[in-house]
Amino acid sequence: MNIQILASAVCTASLLLGSVGCANTTAAPATEATTSIGAKAGDRIDASSVTLRTASNSAVKMDTLLNDGPVVVVFYRGSWCPYCEQALDGWDEQLDELNAAGGRLIALTPDAPGNVAETLTKQDLGFTVLSDANGEAAKELGVNFVVDSATRSKYIGYGIDLENSNANGLWQLPHPGTFIIDRDGTVRYANVSADYRNGRADPAEVIAAYRRISG
Question: Could you tell me which residues come within 8 angstroms of residue 196 by beta carbon, excluding any fewer than 6 positions away?
Answer without folding.
Answer: 19, 20, 77, 81, 83, 84, 175, 176
